[in-house]
Specification:
The protein is mainly α and 148 residues long. 43% of the residues lie in helices and 3% in strands. A two-stranded antiparallel sheet has the order 1-2. The structure holds iron/sulfur cluster (SF4). This is Zinc-or iron-chelating protein.
C-alpha cells in the first residue's frame, strides 16, 4: 500500500521547523549534548521547555514515528517523552528549548542574542498556524497529536 504523504501545508510547516533546527546546528556556539537527560527531569529542575505550534507538530510527528499515539505522564515527573531506558524517544524531533537547553554539562543555555532570529522564525510560524504562542511541552504535543 502507498504511504500517505503529508499535505503541502503540513510539509511546509515541518520543513520550516527543520530548517530552523538545521540553522541552529550551524551556529558557532559549542554545545555538547551527551544525552545525560538532566534537562528532561522537569520535577527535579523545575524547568519545562515551551513549544511553539510548529515545534509541537514536529515533535508529535516524532512521537507517532516512535509508535505511540498519546502522551503518558512520566512516573517521576520527567518529560513524558523520556523513555524507560532514560533516553529521549524523539531526539531528532526534540523541540528548540531542548536544543538550547539549560544543561550546564552540555554548555549551558544559549545566549538569546545568538538565537533570537531563530526564535522569531518559530514565533512567526506559530502565528501563521494560528497558535497561541509558546506552551508547555506536554499539553502542546498532546494537542498536536490529537489534531492529526
Ligand atoms: S523532548 Fe526529549 S530532550 Fe526534550 S525534555 Fe523531553 S525527553 Fe528531554
Amino acid at each position: 500500500m502507498a504511504r500517505k504523504q503529508p499535505d503541502p501545508a503540513l510539509r511546509a510547516t515541518l520543513d520550516e521547523v527543520k530548517a530552523v533546527y538545521a540553522e541552529l546546528e550551524k551556529r558557532p556556539l559549542q554545545r555538547d549534548c551527551q544525552m545525560r537527560t538532566q534537562c528532561c527531569h522537569f520535577r527535579l529542575t523545575g524547568k519545562t521547555p515551551f513549544l511553539t505550534l510548529g515545534e509541537a507538530i514536529y515533535a508529535a510527528q516524532g512521537v507517532r514515528a516512535s509508535g505511540r499515539k498519546v502522551m503518558k505522564p512520566h512516573p517521576e515527573g520527567a518529560c513524558p517523552l523520556l523513555g524507560k531506558e532514560g533516553r529521549c524517544t524523539i531526539y531528532a524531533h526534540r523541540p528548540f528549548g531542548c536544543r538550547t537547553h539549560f544543561c550546564q554539562p552540555a554548555g549551558g543555555m544559549y545566549p538569546r542574542k545568538h538565537i533570537a532570529d531563530l526564535i522569531h522564525r518559530l514565533e512567526a510560524l506559530d502565528e501563521k498556524l494560528g497558535g497561541d504562542g509558546s506552551r508547555e511541552l506536554e499539553p502542546a504535543v498532546a494537542d498536536a497529536l490529537d489534531d492529526r
